[in-house]
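Escalated from tier 1: IPE holo job.
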Amino acid sequence: MVFTLSSNITEELLNIIQVDDRDQIIENYTLIGKKLNELFPTGSEPKNLYTAANHLLGRGKMLRPLLILLVNQNLGSKNINKIIKLSMAVELLHTASVIHDDIIDEADYRRGLPSIHKKFGNETAIVTGDLLISMAIKITSDLDPLTIRWVSEAAINMSEGESFEIEYKNQDLNTEMYYNIIKKKTASLIESSVASSALLSGVSNKLIDSFRTYGLNVGLGFQIRDDILDIIGKEQTLGKPVGNDIKLGRHNIVHILTKQTYPESRNLPGQKINNYIINNTTRREFY
Ligand code: IPE
Ligand code: IPE
Ligand code: MG
Ligand code: MG
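Tier 2 regenerated the structure:
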């Protein structure tokens, strides 16, 4: 099964954000997608590796590049060449993280397509993730050293966040443990993307810090939204499996708060908790 994703995803995202110059954002956003698609020429050897590298690249929402562009435009649109390189590096790192995450999560679909390990096998998927990380490092070499440091620290945080999640498998988490995981695995890269964009836009340290806080909170909210959608979303719209968190013994924030608030839900085995949540959710307009 192959899902069809909305081709108007950028339009939808931009419609909910106030943008000064929408055309400029769309132009740069499209350029980043194009440059990502040209990074690994089709037909290069080893074929398996480069075909796999192109399979998902530039096919997601590209939320992190979009945020980088929006912050840069908001701060005067300076240094656009470096902003585009930052966006490419971050999107490469993010795509590598989902390729490896899909192996860990045994997820068969991503971005409306078969996941890389499903289509090319685990061995190729692991090396493809490595290739994308290496290319991200190469691209950041042209950036400000502080930007390289922030993005690298985010990549370290992603590995730690994913590892905590593995370590806590099948355990009941409290909200503190949950926030620690999602801060590391998701919010950190969004935080460093936004802070780096502010830095490359040439603003004061105080303003960079404000954008850093904004990025961190957008990142936390983004993962919470992803976790809610894992329970009430539709595979056709998301382009990836739903119900995977509880299937893999991962208690996300919805499971944690449901168990805290409704004692009768505490002993529900495995996936039954998702049915409980769906059946007891009154705001049905959300799904
Ligand atoms: C998926 O990220 C992984 C999470 C951090 C939730 P996105 O929802 O940004 O995935 P793509 O890049 O659009 O596929
Ligand atoms: C993983 O979180 C976030 C990453 C850092 C890759 P999830 O496991 O919830 O992401 P999805 O739902 O597979 O996209
Ligand atoms: Mg996953
Ligand atoms: Mg998820």
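DSSP finds 14 helices and two strands in the chain.
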